C-alpha cells in the first residue's frame, strides 16, 4: 500500500473503528468569491489603525493625496537607493523600477516604497497581496526600510473583515511592525532578517 | 535522554536556567494577559476555534483529500508520509533531484520531530536553521528548550562565544570585536544568514495552518527568516502534520487572532505569509507539501485525548506551568516540552514502550493552569490523568510494583501508627547526618540521596534535612513545661 493509502486508512480506522468507510471523491472545491470594498471606514477605525501600527515601533505619517509624493520623497531622501514596484503610480525621482531585479541586486538597495492591499485596524497590520503597486514578495523583504502607502479606504476593522476581502489564491504577506526578535535574553531587537524599519504612510481625502 | 525525573534533578540544580525561564515566562505571561483583555469575547473565540478543530478532526480524511486536490490544482506536488523516515526521504529526494547539498530552514516543530536535519546530514545534505534562536542552538550543538524561544537557556555572553567560535566554520564569520549586546549579536546573525538566503536554492518549512478548500499554507513568524526561505529559493518543501488542516479560508479568523496573542502576547506577529501552490513569477516555482502522520492517527484513535491535536503550538501552556518553569524544556526529552509535550509525546508514541515517555504524564502538578490558558481549550489536565491510567494499565502484570506504589505503601504503614511514626522520626533525625548534602545554588542543607526504597523518591527530589528533634519530642520536652507554668 502506498503511504497515501496507509495514512488515509489509518485516519479512517481511527475515526470509525468498526466501519471501513469508502473514500469520498475529492475534486478541487470552488474558490470563494471575494466581495468588493464596502464604504469607507470611519475616522475612529482609521485612527485606531494608525495608533496600533505605531505601537509596534513602526513610523506612521498621515497625509492628503496631494502631499503624498512629497511626503514619501522626504522619507526616503537619505536612503542609499530606492526601489519601486511596477504600478506604484507615484513620481519618485531617482527610484529604480523593479524590473525582475535579482535578489543580490535588491539586497544592495536600502529602501522600497509600495502600496498595500488592506490595513487591519485592531491589529495594526498591513496586508500585501503582491498585486499592482505592491511588488513581488522579495521586493519588500530585502531592503532595510519599507515605506508602505495605505489608503484610508483600505482600512478594515479586524482580521475577519480582512479575510473576507482578501483572495486566498494570491500569495500574501501580513506585516505588523518591523522584523523583530526577542531571542537573546528576551531583549527586543528590531530586524534580524526583514526590514528593520517600517514606515506606513496613511493617505486621506 | 534520561527519563523526566532524572533529567529534572539535573535541571533543577541549574540556577541560571531557572532565572532565565522565570524571567521569560513571567514577561510573556504579563504581555499575554494585557492583549487578551482587549478582546471582548476571548472565551467565545476559544470555543469557536476548538469546535472548528474538532469538526475538522472528525472528518480528517475528507479534509485531507480536499487539501490534496486544491494544492495539486494550484501547482504543488503533494506527498504523504507515514512516519519520519518517509518524510525525510521525500525531502532528500527532492534535494537530490536538483543536485542540492544545502537547504535553508524555517523553524518548524514537525521537522524537528522527524529529525530532518540529522537525517539529511547522514546523506550529505546540510540543513541550515535560519531563525536566530535556532541558529544559536545549531551552532552551539545544542537542543532547543522552548517552543517559542528555543535558546532561552543561553545568556548573551554564551551566545557571543558561540558566534565568535563557530560561525566562520560554516559560512560568513562573525565580525571582529563582537560584543555581547543583543543588537550587535543580531547584526552578526543577519549578515551570516543573509549570505545563506541569497545563495541557497532550496528551502524547507513547516506550516501553522493548511486551508483545505483553497490549498493555502500559512506560516506565522517574527524575524523575516520565514519570508526569506519561503520566497527566495527556487524549490520549497513544506512538512505539514495532518492535524494542521482547517476547512476554509475564513476559519483562519479565530486562529490568527488567538495564536499571536497566546504566543508572544502581541496583537499580531510581525509577519504572516500565505501561499497557495505556485505563484507564477513570484517565489519558488517548484512547491512540495509533505502530509505527515508519524503517530497523529494514533492520537486520533483516542476519542478523549484526540483533542490534543487541536494544539496550535502557541506555547502558552509552557509559560504558565510551574513544573516547566523550574526544569525547562530539555527535561522532557522531546521537541514538544511542557504540558503539551507531556500529553502529545505519549499520544504520538503510545504508552508502555519506553520509560521516558511513560514518565511524562506524571510531570505535572495537575494545577490546571495549562488547560485554562490554552487558546483551543484542550483539557490538558484531564488528558494527563487519562494517560496516567493508560500507563498504569500498560504495566499491569509487569511483576514489580511501580516505585510510587511502593513508596505510598511504605508511607501508609509508617504514618498509620503513632509508635511507628515516632520511631521513624527518631531514625530519620539521627540518620540525616549520613545523607546530608546540598545542591548548587542553594545554601539550605538537603538530603539528595536516601537509601532504598527512599531512593525512588530522592531520584527526582531533594528532601529538606529533618530537624534534629522531632515535633513530638519537642512537645514532650517543652509543651509539658509550658503547661505547668
Ligand atoms: S496545548 Fe494549547 S496552550 Fe499549549 S501550545 Fe498547544 S495550543 Fe498552546
TrEMBL record, chain A:
**Pfam families in alphabetical order:** LUD_dom
Outline the extent of the LUD domain.
Answer: 106-203
Alphabetized InterPro entries for the sequence: FTHF_cligase-like_sf, LUD_dom, NagB/RpiA_transferase-like
* Compositional bias ranges of the Pro residues kind: 25-35
Gene3D superfamilies, alphabetically? NagB/RpiA/CoA transferase-like
Q: Which SUPFAM superfamilies match?
A: NagB/RpiA/CoA transferase-like
Q: Where is this region: Disordered?
A: 16-39
Name of the protein in question: LUD domain-containing protein
Q: Which organism is it from?
A: Pedococcus aerophilus
Amino acid at each position: 500500500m502506498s503511504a497515501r493509502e496507509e495514512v488515509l486508512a489509518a485516519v479512517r480506522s481511527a475515526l470509525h473503528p468498526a466501519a471501513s468507510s469508502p473514500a469520498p471523491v475529492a475534486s478541487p472545491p470552488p474558490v470563494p468569491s471575494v466581495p468588493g470594498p464596502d464604504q469607507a471606514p470611519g475616522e475612529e477605525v482609521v485612527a485606531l489603525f494608525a495608533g496600533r501600527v505605531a505601537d509596534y515601533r513602526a513610523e506612521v505619517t498621515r497625509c492628503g493625496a496631494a502631499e503624498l509624493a512629497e511626503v514619501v520623497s522626504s522619507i526616503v531622501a537619505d536612503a542609499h537607493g530606492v526601489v519601486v514596484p511596477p504600478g506604484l503610480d507615484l513620481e519618485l525621482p531617482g527610484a529604480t523600477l523593479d524590473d525582475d531585479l535579482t535578489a543580490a541586486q535588491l539586497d544592495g538597495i536600502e529602501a522600497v516604497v509600495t502600496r498595500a492591499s488592506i490595513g487591519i485596524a485592531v491589529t495594526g497590520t498591513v496586508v500585501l497581496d503582491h498585486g499592482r503597486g505592491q511588488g513581488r514578495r522579495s521586493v519588500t523583504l530585502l531592503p532595510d526600510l519599507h515605506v508602505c502607502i495605505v489608503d484610508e479606504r483600505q482600512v478594515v476593522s479586524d482580521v475577519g473583515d480582512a479575510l473576507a476581502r482578501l483572495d486566498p489564491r494570491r500569495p500574501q504577506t501580513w506585516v505588523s511592525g518591523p522584523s523583530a526578535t526577542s531571542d537573546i535574553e528576551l531583549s527586543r531587537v528590531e530586524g534580524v532578517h526583514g526590514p528593520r524599519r517600517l514606515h506606513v504612510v496613511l493617505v486621506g481625502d | 535522554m534520561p527519563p523526566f525525573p532524572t533529567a529534572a534533578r539535573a535541571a533543577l540544580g541549574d540556577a541560571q536556567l531557572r532565572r532565565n525561564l522565570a524571567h521569560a515566562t513571567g514577561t510573556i505571561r504579563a504581555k499575554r494577559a494585557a492583549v487578551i483583555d482587549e478582546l471582548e469575547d476571548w472565551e467565545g473565540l476559544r470555543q469557536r476555534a476548538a469546535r472548528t478543530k474538532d469538526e475538522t478532526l472528525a472528518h480528517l480524511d475528507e479534509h485531507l483529500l480536499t487539501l490534496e486536490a486544491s494544492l495539486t490544482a494550484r501547482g504543488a506536488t503533494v506527498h504523504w508520509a507515514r512516519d519520519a523516515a518517509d518524510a525525510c526521504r521525500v525531502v532528500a529526494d527532492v534535494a537530490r533531484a536538483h543536485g542540492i547539498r544545502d537547504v535553508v530552514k524555517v523553524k518548524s516543530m514537525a521537522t524537528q520531530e522527524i529529525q530532518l536535519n540529522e537525517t539529511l546530514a547522514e546523506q550529505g545534505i546540510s540543513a541550515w536553521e535560519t531563525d536566530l534562536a535556532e541558529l544559536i542552538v545549531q551552532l552551539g550543538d545544542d537542543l532547543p528548550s522552548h517552543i517559542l524561544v528555543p535558546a532561552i537557556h543561553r545568556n548573551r555572553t554564551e551566545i557571543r562565544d558561540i558566534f565568535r567560535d563557530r560561525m566562520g566554520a560554516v559560512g560568513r564569520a562573525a565580525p571582529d570585536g563582537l560584543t555581547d549586546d543583543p543588537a550587535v549579536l543580531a547584526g552578526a546573525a543577519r549578515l551570516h544568514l543573509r549570505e545563506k538566503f541569497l545563495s541557497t536554492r532550496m528551502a524547507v518549512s513547516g506550516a501553522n495552518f493548511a486551508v483545505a478548500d483553497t490549498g493555502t499554507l500559512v506560516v506565522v513568524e517574527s524575524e523575516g527568516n520565514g519570508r526569506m526561505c519561503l520566497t527566495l529559493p527556487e524549490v520549497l518543501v513544506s512538512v505539514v502534520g495532518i492535524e494542521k488542516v482547517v476547512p476554509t479560508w475564513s476559519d483562519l479568523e479565530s486562529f490568527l487572532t488567538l495564536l499571536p496573542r497566546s504566543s508572544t502576547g502581541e496583537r499580531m506577529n510581525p509577519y504572516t505569509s500565505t501561499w497557495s501552490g505556485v505563484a507564477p513569477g513570484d517565489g519558488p516555482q517548484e512547491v512540495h507539501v509533505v502530509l505527515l502522520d508519524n503517530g497523529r492517527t494514533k492520537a486520533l484513535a483516542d476519542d478523549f485525548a484526540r483533542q490534543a491535536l487541536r494544539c496550535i503550538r502557541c506555547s502558552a501552556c509552557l509559560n504558565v506551568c510551574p513544573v516547566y518553569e523550574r526544569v525547562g524544556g530539555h527535561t522532557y526529552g522531546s521537541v514538544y516540552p511542557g504540558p503539551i509535550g507531556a500529553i502529545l509525546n505519549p499520544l504520538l508514541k503510545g504508552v508502555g514502550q519506553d520509560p521516558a515517555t511513560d514518565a511524562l504524564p506524571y510531570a505535572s502538578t495537575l494545577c490546571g493552569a495549562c488547560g485554562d490558558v490554552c487558546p483551543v481549550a484542550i483539557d490538558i489536565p484531564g488528558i494527563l490523568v487519562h494517560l496516567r491510567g493508560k500507563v498504569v494499565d500498560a504495566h499491569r502484570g509487569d511483576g514489580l510494583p511501580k516505585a510510587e506504589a511502593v513508596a505510598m505503601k511504605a508511607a501508609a504503614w509508617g504514618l498509620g501508627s503513632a509508635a511507628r511514626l515516632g520511631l521513624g522520626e527518631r531514625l530519620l533525625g539521627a540518620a540525616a547526618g549520613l545523607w546530608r548534602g546540598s545542591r548548587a545554588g542553594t545554601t539550605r542543607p538537603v538530603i539528595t540521596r536516601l537509601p532504598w526504597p527512599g531512593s525512588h523518591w530522592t531520584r527526582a527530589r531533594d528532601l529538606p534535612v529533618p530537624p534534629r528533634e522531632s515535633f513530638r519530642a519537642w512537645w514532650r520536652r517543652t509543651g509539658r513545661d509550658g503547661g505547668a507554668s
